[in-house]
């Protein structure tokens, strides 16, 4: 099974050791599914982890370990972004899902319109709670 994890899910796993995002992160680390990422997402994680709001709650060493782990996954170098989203910063997530032939895109961002979309191609777009209930 191939899964795209929105950066907000990854950050939530690092911030709170309990809850669906952490369970998803641990399941991925236990090789229960394959994560698809991209250079764009790795850059976003590096950039966002430096925001003062996140620096206050994230441990830099844990972010570094997460980035190192992500660099050992399926990394898409060239994304063709053809789908529009309410938040243009999330278009790369849809491109990762379609290019990487993901089964799921897991996001906690209810404002960006990804969850309302429900799917892109063969990829289901779900919350961390739904992913845990259906997959883990």
Characteristics of this structure?
Putative toxin-antitoxin system toxin component, PIN family, PIN-like_dom_sf, 136 residues, 15% strand, PIN_dom, Rossmann fold, PIN_toxin-like
How is the topology of this model organized?
Elements lengths: L1 E4 L1 H9 L4 H10 L4 E5 H10 L3 H4 L4 H11 L3 E3 L14 H9 L4 E3 L7 H4 L1 E2 L2 E4 L1 H7 L2
Parallel strand pairs: 1-2, 1-4, 2-3, 4-6
Antiparallel strand pairs: 5-6
Task: Summarize the model shown.
The protein is an alpha/beta fold. It has helices spanning 7-15, 20-29, 39-48, 52-55, 60-70, 91-99, 114-117, 128-134; strands spanning 2-5, 34-38, 74-76, 104-106, 119-120, 123-126. The chain has one domain: 3-Layer(aba) Sandwich (Rossmann fold).
Label the structural class: alpha/beta
Q: Helix and strand string, N-terminal first?
A: EHHEHHHEHEHEEH
Work out the helix count: 8
Classify the beta-strand content into a percent band.
15-25%
Number of domains: 1
Give the helix proportion (percent range).
40-55%
What is the CATH architecture descriptor?
Answer: 3-Layer(aba) Sandwich
Going by CATH, the homologous superfamily would be 5'-nuclease
